[in-house]
Amino acid sequence: MDRKTKDASIFKDNLQNFLFVFPALSIFCIFYIYPFYKMINLSFYDWRGIGPMHWIGLSNYQELMGDHLWWDSIGHAGYITLIALTFQNMLAFALALACDREIRMKRFYRLVFFIPPVLSEVVVGLIWNWILNPEMQNGQHIGMLNHFLFTTGFPQLVHDWLGDPRTALTTIAIVHSWKGFGWGFIMLLAGLQTIDKQLYEAAKVDGAGSWKTFMNVTMPMMLPVILVVMILTILGSMQVFVLIIAMVNEGLVNHTDVPVTRIFSAMQNTNRFGYACAEAVIFGTVLIGISFISKKLSDKARQV
Amino acid sequence: MCKLITLSSCLIFIFLAGCSKPPQPSNKIILWHWMTDRNDTFQKLAQQYQQQTGIEVTIQLFPPSDAYSQKIIAAAQANVLPDIYGILDKKSIVAEFIKAGLVADLTDAMNAEGEKWKDSLFDKALADKSFGVGNIYGVKPGIYGVPIDVTNEQMLYNKKLLSKAGIKSPPKTFDEFIKDAQMLRRVGIVPFVSGWGELWLLDCFAFNYAFNIMGPDKIFATFRGQVKYTDPDWIKVFSIFAELRDKGVLIDGIVTKGNKYAEQDFALERAAFGFDGSWCVNVFHGNQGMNPNLDFGAIPPPFISNAYPLRIEGGAGSTFVVNAGSPNKDKAIAFLKWLTAQEQQVVLARETNNLPSNKQALLGVSEVLEEFATGMDQSTHPNIWPLNEDPTVSEAFDKGIQDIIIGEKTPQQVAQDVQKVKDLQSSKGKL
């Protein structure tokens, strides 16, 4: 084969390969790259969603740096994430450990624990709104939780859980954890079932008790799974949105604002599309940063 | 090689498929709307119109209104708006649509035949999408929308619960209202419910009293930055909410309550007073109403001052506009003219329990709808005001009221906070 024919053949192969990749590449560019570029681009404009766009450079970012409501909202998302990381994941791990043993009806428990995550966030929000309803009718508490507290002898604990700034965010975080723990449960349970049973038997032969076995066998083997669950929890919790809208509408003043509700509000209530895009860019950067750090930690843990 | 040719042909075909001809005039009109409760009646009327004229009207429903609003903005950006649609946004956004050439000027059609069409409709409803000479938005003066119905927001009262508390007639003054609320509390009835988790409804209630306490000139002067929110009159407005809180008038959890939940509470007789729009008649008494036996009436919120008349928020309920770029523009206008004629408006009012936009179609509406209709005389709407407050300031204003209700801030603190936001926006040249 002479050089010219060889070159033509390589070109044909490359072109063919490119044409095969082209549809997927175009879809990726149109639906991911272009909107991403457009969002960054819009963040430099003052634009109301329609009509003329005014270039304002970094003004949106400058304003954002001094917007305490925005930084508070990131703090709120961080608080929800912290509760999810601790309460939600510890609950998921404890239940996964329980279901990994030979207990009765373990298939039933697995099914039950997986119901909350498959429910829509709107449905979960509505159910919990009903449970937490602070109202009374004919001297009776309408909400299930307050009714329960009242009838079981704890009337001092009856409360407007979503209407009080001291409890609203924690209540949302707990409901979010209740909805999300099933995912962690399934992943952790799957991780537990991959641990070789011989390791437990060897530990038993060496005289290790339950706690030592857990710390020296289960935990090291589960570390990669735990890290994945933690990363997913962080990313999922930082972006909580629908649940908040379903539970407290436009929010309890600004006490339940999270970054996504602020972005939505900038677009929907104040028609500040440029500002909303700047918020989205900053928030996206924060999430990318978190993912990057988590990935590094995860890689390190795997090496150990 | 064969594979290469096939693949290339497919790609070329895909690209060519996207390059269609611009739309041509046809006998088909497309209408996008957001009103779930009116969809069946719209469909029925569209069929009737097709039988009469041969023009097919495709009615497409995209609820809820928030999502619809975003869809319209996205469609406007992509220039794929239908022949007829609604703009649910602020007047300044409507102005941008008009300036972008996306909304047809209907003035000539309205004024044809000695202003017959225009005269048949409520003036306040028409004003919603009309722009006067010298308007601040820089829009060519004219009428740009066709109101399908009218609406206003008033105080609701449950007749049975009021009589249970020994209240003979609904309150006329704010003091009477507070007294009634205390009588209701004494017999274990929650006095007042509203969906103040939705800021627009809270804003509406606050501005009713702002009009009553200081009148329109001072309100607009505040928007212009000539009067501060720390003015005693504004503090009086904020103080109303502190008083409602302190006297136990409000239902628990009111600041996070959506309007649907508030309507549910009122329908289930959990509260004696409510604050809602005239559409609530359909929500309670409609075909699938929450409580068809609910015995209630509507009154303007009880006034607190004799200085100025109390204004309730109201005007056009749902208004459609015609796409200026549509090849079927004239057919779309003809359909809207037909839809707002007396006969069709009677059908809409009867089947959807809404106030018709055609004055002649008011006869025969229910007693409570008549009460809402009476309120139209004292209604006003941000869309017909000469100017509006900056949305960021409005948000701070409404959230500040929520702060007062939950007892976190005093009216004076909220007034200062709102003024700070106002000053900040002014310094940016946004006002």
Q: What's a concise summary of this model?
A:
By secondary structure, chain A is mainly alpha-helical. Chain A has helices spanning 3-42, 59-65, 68-100, 106-113, 115-118, 121-131, 144-151, 168-193, 197-205, 210-238, 242-248, 259-268, 273-303; strands at 45-46, 54-55, 136-137, 140-141. Chain A contains 13 helices and four strands.
Any overview of this molecule?
The complex is a heterodimer of chains A (304) and B (431). Chain A is mainly α. In chain A, 73% of the residues lie in helices and 3% in strands. Chain A contains 13 helices and four strands. Chain A has a two-stranded antiparallel ribbon. A two-stranded antiparallel ribbon of chain A has the order 3-4. By secondary structure, chain B is an alpha/beta fold. Chain B has helices spanning 2-17, 39-53, 65-77, 91-99, 107-120, 123-127, 159-164, 174-186, 199-224, 232-246, 259-267, 280-285, 329-339, 342-352, 367-375, 391-405, 411-427; strands at residues 28-33, 56-61, 84-85, 130-131, 142-143, 146-158, 190-193, 271-277, 296-299, 312-322, 355-356, 379-380. In chain B, strands 3, 6, 7, 8, 9, 10, 11 and 12 form an eight-stranded mixed beta sheet that branches. The mean pLDDT of chain B is 91. The A-B interface holds A 12, 15-16, 19-20, 22-23, 48-51, 129, 133-139, 142, 160, 162-165, 168, 247-254, 265, 267-272 and B 1, 3-4, 7-8, 11, 14, 66, 69-70, 73, 76-77, 89-90, 92-93, 96-97, 99-100, 188, 190, 195, 197-199, 251-258, 261, 265, 268, 270, 391-392, 395, 399, 402-403, 406, 408.
